[in-house]
Amino acid sequence: MAFQSVSTLNSLCWWREGEDLAGSEEKIIWREVRRRLFGGNFHERFGGNFYSTWAASPQPAKRKRSKPKPKRKAKPKSKISSPPSQAIETIDQSLILIMSSIVLKTVIFLGSARNIAPAWGGDTRLCDRVANWVKSTITSRNDTLGDDNITHQIHVVDPLEVFGPGGALSHSGGELRAPTFFMKSDALPESTRKLQEVIKDADCYLVVSPEYNHTIPPALSSVMGHFGGSNYKCKPVGIVTYSPGPFAGMRAAMAIQIMCHELGCLPVSKLCGLPSPSDLLELDGTPKDANHRMLQQLPELLTQLEWMAVAMKNQRCVVLK
């Protein structure tokens, strides 16, 4: 504790020892002053009144002050004009070029293999509207994660194609007659082996699925179930569901989460569910109202998916290198 002036000592030290200041902050301060300055022998040295004794004691001679040095004239501050807008734009573009770019290999699984229009009318496959919108949103997305610019390299796995004639899983069929994990790698058809490599090399997954009988469509569980969990492990998945009704396929989303957990690809918490997609999207996936609140779910989902995909990708590089 240090005191900078006589006024400070004056304000602290006017009490006599016998005054009752028990429990007060002043008494604590007074005792600390006495301990540090006088070693506790207050009465022996000053007889109980510090200030009067201190004031009567001879004071040290005042030091002579040297003449103040003449002040230097301050240099006038130069006016800094704000950079033109073109310069700012150039700087922004340069920063974008400096930022590193991460390309995420993203596999999109479609959950519908329907190829007939419903008896009451409508799309032959409602999934096409939603899938086109999802693909368009991802490809036009330009987002950053820390110092990295994130883009996606998309591969779509469509059950109509993989189970169709000449498809990668046509030899096994939707009923899953020949799971890849029951076969030797050299016995796999070339197209099946290539599809397995695409799934295994992916950084993240997206599932775009309807809801059949309040649960997972058989085409989706069959396509993903053809390949063992070692192909999916330590990677995130985002789930997009839809339905012609108001519930947006959410019951299927709950079941898809469990399936993906068991396969080893971990679902992000954000879900995207579209009720009545034909009211929200054109046939080619163009939003009828880009600001519709239901369409704001996907960007939030993709942000979580990218965050998890980059983190898991970095960790796989450390553990598996």
Secondary structure class reads alpha/beta
Question: What would the average pLDDT be, to the nearest integer?
Answer: 82
Portion of residues within helices: 25-40%
Q: Note the total helix count.
A: 12
Major sheet attributes: 7 strands, mixed
Number of domains: 2
Through-space gap between termini:
59 Å
CATH superfamily of the largest domain: Flavodoxin domain
| CATH classification class of the largest domain | Alpha Beta
Computed over alpha carbons, the radius of gyration is 38 Å
The shape, in one word, is elongated
Protein name: NADPH-dependent FMN reductase-like domain-containing protein
InterPro entries: Flavoprotein-like_sf (IPR029039), FMN_Rdtase-like_dom (IPR005025), NAD(P)H-dep_reductase (IPR050712)
Organism: Discostella pseudostelligera
Pfam families: FMN_red
